[in-house]
From TrEMBL:
Listed transmembrane segments: none
Organism: Isosphaera pallida (strain ATCC 43644 / DSM 9630 / IS1B)
Pfam families: LbH_GLGC, NTP_transferase
Protein name according to UniProt: Glucose-1-phosphate adenylyltransferase
Lineage: superkingdom: Bacteria
Length: 434
């Protein structure tokens, strides 16, 4: 896409709220900082999409547990002084006008108007920081300019079940958005936003899914966005601003249809599934793409060492040490993971470690009988997420034997959406059954 279309665009990536549905993965980090795919963070997805689309002026708006996100961005994204690009954090802060936390998506953008209300910016692209997808925003920008829209919303065809959890739009025969309803639940409200197959075909949408869901990706004319935010106290785009713009009939809202892979990583179940799907022979999303790679923090790690290990349909990141006799199936193993002998790991995501354990500390722990960094000999782990820097002893079983959907948090973790989740820095003694 010609740079002339993208060099007057500023991107805002919203870091989200407390991330309660992803807890305990968000216990000490924000949602965009959650590791995915063994060596990436969720924030790497929208930033990489921006960079590949020719957008290099990027702000990340955060407010909860943002320290690790700050560190990751500082260590990952650096632009030369001649290109004028940047990726900067806009952390929530008290000002003379505002002393509270962000109250919604629109409020988060409103508080940061001074950073994009500038003469060298025509368009503002608003993105979510917790989604997995690959998109060329340049095409969306070109469509926005071609149709002379004031707002363009990326839309994904979904079925009825998915529609109840999304903002759903309906369009007219001119492809303008005429209705926007957040999370329709009843048959009556679903019928109101069900799209006509003729309208979908006109957009080039070939899916048999009859609902157009907002992907949380919005492109605004900068001047309109500033005026809207200054003239209203609305806190959320989907619940308040879009319905109001449509109700007045004075504004031109369009959709940009998208039919590729897109996953909202909003729950532990969705996060676990998205990671395990990466291990399929033909995964729905690939981090390996020659021309549209996902960027992340560069690390200088040795190759992983596997001694007599059986591995099938799994991803093994750099710097791992996996002991003899271990079996790894349908799993993702993160950077610097240490896994003992005769360990069985199935359908799980082991996030790895932030650093290698010093030898003197490891010797001291071994001498005292404490678990060392990593996963001890003889462990069995199934359908689990083991967060970073665990110290799991020998012969520990982490299996949801009872098939529980959710279970209360204890000293070793919890069960969410049927997945066993072990938080960061958790110590589990030898022979524990969870």
């Amino acid at each position: 896409m010609a740079r002339a279309l993208t060099n007057r665009v500023i991107s805002l990536i919203l870091g989200g709220g407390r991330g309660t549905r992803l807890y305990p993965l968000t216990k000490s980090r924000s949602k965009p900082a959650v590791p995915i795919g063994g060596k990436y963070r969720l924030i790497d997805i929208p930033i990489s999409n921006c960079i590949h689309s020719g957008l290099n002026r990027i702000y990340v708006v955060t407010q909860f547990n943002s320290m690790s996100l700050h560190q990751h961005i500082v260590n990952s994204y650096k632009f030369d002084m001649f290109g004028g690009g940047f990726v900067e954090i806009l952390a929530a802060q008290q000002t003379m006008e505002h002393e509270s936390w962000y109250q919604g998506t629109a409020d988060a953008v409103r508080r940061n108007v001074p950073y994009f209300d500038r003469n060298d910016c025509d368009l503002v692209l608003i993105l979510s920081g917790d989604q997995l997808y690959r998109m060329d925003f340049g095409e969306m920008i070109a469509r926005h300019r071609e149709t002379q829209a004031q707002v363009t919303i990326a839309a994904l065809p979904v079925d009825e079940e998915a529609a109840t959890g999304c903002g759903i739009m309906k369009i007219d025969d001119q492809n303008k958005v005429t209705f926007f309803l957040e999370k329709p639940k009843t048959p009556e409200t679903l019928a109101q936003v069900r799209s006509n197959p003729v309208d979908l075909a006109r957009l080039g949408v070939t899916s048999d899914k009859p609902y157009l869901a907002s992907m949380g990706i919005y492109l605004f004319d900068r001047q309109l966005l500033v005026e809207l935010l200054k003239s209203t106290t609305a806190m959320d785009f989907g619940k308040e601003i879009f319905p109001e713009l449509i109700r007045g009939g004075r504004y031109d809202l369009r959709i940009y249809p998208f039919q590729g892979y897109w996953e909202d990583i909003g729950t532990v179940g969705a996060f676990h599934q998205a990671n395990i799907e990466l291990t399929l022979p033909n995964p729905p999303f690939r981090f390996i793409e020659n021309d549209r790679a996902i960027f992340t923090r560069p690390r200088f790690l040795p190759c992983s060492l596997l001694s007599g290990v059986t591995v099938s349909n799994s991803l093994i990141s750099d710097g791992c040490v996996i002991g003899e006799g271990s079996v790894i199936e349908n799993s993702v193993i993160g950077v610097r993971a240490v896994i003992g002998r005769d360990v069985v790991i199935r359908n799980s995501y082991i996030m790895g470690n932030d650093s290698f354990e010093p030898q003197d500390l490891k010797a001291k722990r071994l001498a005292s009988g404490e678990p060392t960094l990593g996963i001890g000999d003889g462990c069995v782990i199934e359908k689990a997420i083991i967060d970073k820097n665990p110290r799991i002893g020998r012969n520990v079983h982490l299996i949801n034997v009872k098939g529980e959907i959710d279970a209360e948090e204890n000293a070793y973790g919890m069960i969410r959406d049927g997945v066993v989740v072990v938080p960061k820095f958790t110590l589990i003694p030898d022979n524990t059954r969870v």
